[in-house]
Amino acid sequence: MDNFFVSGTSTLNTQVITIANGGIAEWISNVSLSLPTGANFKIDTGGELVTDKPCNAAKRLIIGTTIYSTCNGAAGAQFSFTDLNVEGGTLSVTPTSNSAICEGDLLNLYSNPSGTGSLNASYLWTGPNGYTSTSQNPVITNLTQGDYDYIVTISDSAGNTNTKTINVSVLAIPAITNTTPGFRNGPGTVVLEAYVSSGTLNWYLNPTGGSSLGTGPSFTTPTISTSTSFYVEASENGCISERVAVLATVNSNSTVITNRKITYRIKKN
């Protein structure tokens, strides 16, 4: 069990202090600890900010220029140390997302607010190309391949803020660049080909669903007796293209030539 003691008036130029499970934070003198604007004094489940020995308004946590909390909540403080224990510390966001996603997928951003004042807080997200949103958990569409930074700021009714940045990745969907149909005379197998910008090719009998019949740029069909379309898709890093039809043509295995009196049947090789 580790202890975080505040024994003298001091300033720490850090954005996050976390009292983790089993840890204790204690003001052992009537002093102030100052953190920068937007900093987060976080108390995990199992961590504790000591509220006795004795508890008074001279034990202060200052964030920016505001007395954010005193041990007993007096002296104009917004919260007491007990409030911080109950609500997990000071106001904070810990943004997450469903990244990495593929081009065309929805990007879901989650602010994950915590701490005192978070219940009725407001939000501002900003991102590339002038993106803004005031939703707690916005959804973004039509993103192309690339890496993007989104910034979220949470603000409570007293003007306290906390800002974090999250990086998300959008992966490219591989493109099928060309296909080569195949043909044969009479029943049998047909060789079809496809070409892809990158990734793996999978072949199917149906335009959607079903199990893969084979992989790779060259595919030999099962034995067929009539012309049949097969479908190929490209996949890479979990991103899958739309399927493209490739025709396997089966010509009749005989040709009939008829004159007025005689019919000839010519078998093709």
Report on the architecture of this protein:
- This protein has 3 domains: 3-90, no CATH class; 93-171, Immunoglobulins (Immunoglobulin-like, Sandwich), CATH 2.60.40.10; 176-254, SoxY domain (Immunoglobulin-like, Sandwich).
- The strands form 9 sheets. Strands 22, 24, 25, 27, 28 and 29 form a 6-stranded mixed beta sheet that branches. A 5-stranded mixed beta sheet has the order 2-5-8-9-10.
- The chain is built from 1 helix and 31 strands.
- Helix content is 3%, strand content 49%.
- It has one helix at residues 81-87; strands at residues 3-6, 10-11, 16-19, 24-27, 32-35, 40-43, 48-49, 60-63, 66-70, 79-80, 92-93, 96-97, 101-102, 107-110, 113-114, 122-126, 132-133, 139-140, 146-155, 161-171, 176-180, 182-185, 191-196, 200-204, 214-215, 218-220, 228-236, 239-240, 244-251, 254-258, 263-267.
List keywords for this structure.
269 residues, mainly beta, Immunoglobulin-like, six-stranded mixed beta sheet, five-stranded mixed beta sheet
Write a concise synopsis of the structure shown:
The chain has three domains: 3-90, no CATH class; 93-171, Immunoglobulin-like (Sandwich); 176-254, SoxY domain (Immunoglobulin-like). The strands form nine sheets. Strands 22, 24, 25, 27, 28 and 29 form a six-stranded mixed β-sheet that branches. The chain has a five-stranded mixed β-sheet with strand order 2-5-8-9-10. Strands 13-20-19-16-17 form a five-stranded mixed β-sheet, with no helix packed on it.
